[in-house]
């Protein structure tokens, strides 16, 4: 199609992350170019759960690590989470349909030549180190995001 | 204007649904073409409250039916809902202004030649049957949504 | 760049307001034209905390004034707010990085020739008076927003 989609993934919730990644995967299947810019809570989606470190971090940064979800499958729902019960139910319903889980959509996206960017300011404020993110994630500033988004045919804030 | 707007209605909250439907109605009034793609919680907006059925549904699908809002007017607020008190207050404020309620904006939209689409995967996961949705809702996949959105002049994720 | 960005600021949460204003400021730095349309909870961001009045307001409008955040710095987080504890922690982390607070991004935006619009219907329903908003905010209807957004190169619903 020679078209381009740019997603700003702000939310760190399971259902919204699912929506973003389903769109990203579907776009690649119809040969649309895809960029995802992860900011704020959206960074939880591209943290590598096996590379979390508490070294050289302030007390707040350590708390942020300890209190937040480790990896995509731990993200809560944006609604009806009911301390995890609603999310568990949704996961069962996804399985009943033989539909993929969030982690599979993320794995799919990582293989489909999608540009993964992380917001520089968000990474700094949250105290994440570049090596704690998935290796293909490139850290860029808001102006660089804007230039990409302004040239895209479809932009969403999720 | 010969322009086109595409809304992805992900949220199933009263205030966000209101925002989406006000935009859709206003766009039609200035002759902008409108498509709304309802996904996830957004599907609550196009379920026909009189056609809910528990037949042929799994236990989770039944729970989903029982625990979720029946019809647009039952949707909660995204903020300050206070177990419904905040929403009741907002409804009173809307009435004080003589402004239409959500159900009226939905009725208006249904008469204005707006395309209503529902996300196929969301419908399957939530266990809704096509006949439980408003009759004008067409079920499509993410790729079909993308093709429409990529050709639009304004796209929002609500 | 001769490009134009249009933000619909629906949310009245600290983190999302931050995202919107960082994008707005960054866009101006690369000479992109910026319009922000504040609707619903987003109006909390452009209320002048020193001009709140309870005069000539219904009981609901007075409650709305009393129960809602006074000024940008009082806005809650969209996630992990923990009755303000999470937000306090985030503010400390922002300060540790020497990064600006929300109020500074708002002040920056006000000096950068950004168009500030407020949604007429939202202002009426919430019972705000025009003089309670920041002086540069112009009140417009949804159709006027749409015309601006349809001519923009990047539009986000935040």
Automatic annotation (TrEMBL), chains A, B, C:
<protein>
    <submittedName>
        <fullName>Sulfide reductase</fullName>
    </submittedName>
</protein>
<dbReference type="InterPro" id="IPR027396">
    <property type="entry name" value="DsrEFH-like"/>
</dbReference>
<dbReference type="Pfam" id="PF13686">
    <property type="entry name" value="DrsE_2"/>
</dbReference>
<dbReference type="InterPro" id="IPR032836">
    <property type="entry name" value="DsrE2-like"/>
</dbReference>
């Amino acid at each position: 199609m020679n078209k381009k989609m740019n997603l700003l993934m702000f939310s760190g919730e399971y259902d919204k992350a699912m929506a973003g990644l389903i769109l990203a995967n579907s776009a690649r299947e119809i040969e649309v170019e895809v960029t995802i810019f992860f900011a704020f809570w959206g960074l939880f989606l591209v943290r590598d759960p096996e590379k979390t470190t508490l070294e050289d971090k302030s007390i707040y940064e350590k708390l942020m690590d300890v209190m937040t979800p480790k990896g995509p499958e731990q993200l809560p729902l944006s609604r009806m989470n009911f301390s995890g019960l609603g999310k568990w139910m949704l996961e069962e319903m996804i399985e009943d349909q033989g539909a993929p889980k969030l982690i599979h959509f993320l794995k799919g996206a990582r293989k489909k030549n999608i540009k993964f960017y992380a917001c520089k300011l968000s990474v700094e404020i949250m105290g994440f180190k570049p090596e704690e993110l998935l290796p293909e994630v490139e850290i860029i500033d808001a102006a660089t995001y804007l230039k990409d988004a302004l040239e895209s045919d479809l932009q969403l804030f999720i």
